[in-house]
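Query structure, 400 tokens:
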């Protein structure tokens, strides 16, 4: 207000605070007499989402201009499917130094593909770059890629990945070696829509391996998800609802839908301390004989619950990929088997009585899909925590 009609020159760039990486520059113009507007052009690459603030001084007056920066500021927004994932991968690579690029883009071979783990062992047992080694801009680009490759539903995909990382920060308050900064990202092969490559990301209690070939997702496994602590927890003022809870509920609902006779057919006497197809093993193989009850011998209601349980893992991928693979597993459902072990206190019709104690275990074993869920004693905290693994007996490490 109070303009006097004078002309003014372009200003110098004013750097942002809060969210950094942006600058606001006054455009030249002429004040109107009385009330009017002046224009600042904002440019640059934000280091994160949040609020960017600019200290403005003009005509002897001062104020702070605050702008909200969206979580995604990508040139890939107009693309979809694998093309978008490749675009985001290249955007991430463009933020890296030459040295970092050589550490994150590795040879696509079976040795590198099998280098994944459940343990809090950072790069000693994984490929790629540590999140803690990335700048804020680089980490934002990496997470944008991971989000696009993952599912978007609450409790699935990227949301679950973020919660499992937060659980590691929660454990880090009690024990050393646990941190969301110890997660990694790697490319086996060069990201493209024409060639073959694998996206790996994960850390303690999480491992995702997605293979792309000629613009198509050809493998969504191995996938490892686990969590300690189980259930909800609060870290740094935020309460998390509990990663793996939707998977737990789906498995409980599945077993709870079995009749007493069906449960008797499904149960085996083996005791499991971990998943049979343990994370990172280079020697374990799928059993040649299927155990438990064949899904075609279950009631129609129970068959529906089996498919719903499978979907909890498949939905940790982007929606199009998840739909494609769920169709495959649905077509194979009749020839899929379900087995479980321990669960000594469980009763038919009572879903919550399953998977409550150390060594309680359940497995879905199809012509392709393989999913395990086991309860283990806590490592850092008392009580139990959950380990799960999803494999594909046809598509794991496809072509390697």
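Result returned for the query:
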């Amino acid at each position: 207000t109070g303009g006097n009609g004078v002309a003014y020159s372009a200003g110098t760039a004013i750097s942002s605070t809060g969210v950094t990486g942006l600058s606001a520059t006054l455009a030249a113009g002429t004040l109107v007499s009385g009330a009017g507007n002046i224009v600042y052009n904002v440019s640059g690459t934000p280091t994160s989402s949040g609020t960017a603030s600019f200290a403005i001084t003009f005509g002897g007056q001062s104020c702070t201009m605050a702008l909200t920066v969206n979580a995604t500021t990508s040139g890939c927004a107009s693309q979809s499917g694998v093309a978008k994932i490749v675009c985001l991968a290249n955007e991430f690579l463009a933020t890296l130094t030459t040295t970092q690029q050589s550490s994150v883009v590795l040879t696509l071979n079976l040795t590198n593909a099998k280098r994944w783990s459940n343990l809090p062992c950072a790069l000693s047992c994984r490929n790629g770059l540590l999140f803690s080694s990335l700048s804020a801009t680089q980490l934002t680009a990496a997470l944008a890629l991971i989000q696009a490759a993952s599912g978007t539903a609450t409790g699935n995909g990227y949301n679950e990945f973020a919660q499992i990382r937060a659980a590691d920060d929660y454990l880090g308050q009690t024990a050393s070696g646990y941190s969301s900064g110890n997660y990694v990202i790697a490319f086996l092969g060069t990201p493209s829509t024409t060639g073959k490559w694998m996206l790996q990301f994960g850390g303690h209690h999480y491992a995702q391996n997605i293979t792309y070939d000629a613009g198509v997702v050809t493998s969504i496994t191995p996938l490892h998800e686990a969590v300690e602590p189980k259930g909800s927890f609060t870290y740094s003022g935020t309460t998390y609802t509990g990663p793996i809870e939707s998977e737990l509920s789906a498995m409980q609902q599945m077993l709870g839908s079995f009749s007493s006779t069906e449960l008797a057919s499904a149960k085996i006497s083996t005791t499991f301390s971990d998943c049979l197809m343990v994370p990172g093993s280079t020697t374990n193989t799928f059993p040649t004989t299927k155990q438990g009850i064949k899904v075609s011998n279950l009631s129609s209601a129970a068959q529906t619950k089996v498919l719903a349980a499978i979907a909890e893992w498949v939905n940790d991928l982007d929606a199009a990929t998840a739909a494609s693979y769920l169709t495959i597993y649905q077509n194979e459902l009749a020839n899929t088997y379900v087995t479980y072990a321990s669960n000594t206190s469980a009763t038919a019709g009572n879903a919550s009585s399953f998977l409550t104690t150390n060594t309680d275990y359940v497995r879905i074993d199809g012509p392709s899909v393989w999913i395990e869920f086991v309860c283990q004693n806590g490592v850092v905290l008392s009580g139990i925590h959950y380990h799960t693994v999803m494999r594909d007996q046809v598509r794991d490490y496809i072509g390697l």
